[in-house]
């Protein structure tokens, strides 16, 4: 390829930089995973709002002295990508502040603040970065070349020999990984959802959280709306681990593909994107059978992505596209409005409303 002038040269270098950004994107993910494994955010938070130096972080995370130079390099990546912030501390009296040997001070950013505290997103982030979900993507190219029935097109099964839900049924540790991840996401999101779209939950007296896991979403709804009787429907091995004590929620063991107990409203948070269209129609059809007519308050409330619905900035568009590939690991699918409408109407519903108030996700109300 001929290089014609500085403009062409710069264009080539810019293209190479963008290629590298995509090539080495996994380094950012693994750096974040390391920060979670080492609990670096907790170590910084321990020292308060002023931040922590590298020696102070080391004292909390207890790594061998031989790894300290490598930790400094890890912190440089995590700071460059916005997980943490790094700056030199204010100069001491009599010091010009030009000493490059001064220890760097690391502080939390809005991103890393999501990894600390009682309602943090560390469990869902740990789940998303778990080798069981990451390793199937090493086989993505070969997976595309294999002819498989639509119901068998699951990257997870291709890599591990069993479905994700099959492994959760057989492996208590993996089951806990998923349930803890879903709880952390619900603890984070539900207060925002209720605040941003309270009207979706008003006017109903009962609700079933379909596939609701350990019930974090249902508990948040019950707390915000004491007049709503909330239940959680999930499989036996999930309900067996439901929290003890008075949670304000009833737990029901069952299968959403078979039958759903009756209530004014069905609630499905991050459920339908796990399944293909035909399976979604089965779930939604069972939901429709379990609710009263629209004029009596019957509805289905969904929290999921609606691709292409506002907000439409580049960051949101990219994350929705990336997440659509991520849920391919379990043969799932993110949908645009046309695709949602198709399955709603095929399941016998007559109307719907999409409210895009949850970042890349939306609240979708579906009416019989």
Automatic annotation (TrEMBL):
Per the UniProt entry, the signal peptide is none
Query: Pfam family example for this protein?
Result: Methyltransf_2
Task: Say which domain of life the source belongs to.
Answer: Eukaryota
Q: Where is the O-methyltransferase dimerisation domain?
A: 20-116
InterPro entries membership: COMT-like, COMT_C, COMT_dimerisation, SAM-dependent_MTases_sf, WH-like_DNA-bd_sf, WH_DNA-bd_sf
Does the record's keyword annotation contain Cell division?
A: no
Which GO annotations describe the biological process of this protein? Answer: melatonin biosynthetic process; methylation
Q: Where is the active site?
A: 273
Oligomeric state and interaction partners are given as: Homodimer.
Q: What is this protein called?
A: O-methyltransferase ZRP4
Protein source organism: Urochloa decumbens
- Taxonomic lineage: Eukaryota, Viridiplantae, Streptophyta, Embryophyta, Tracheophyta
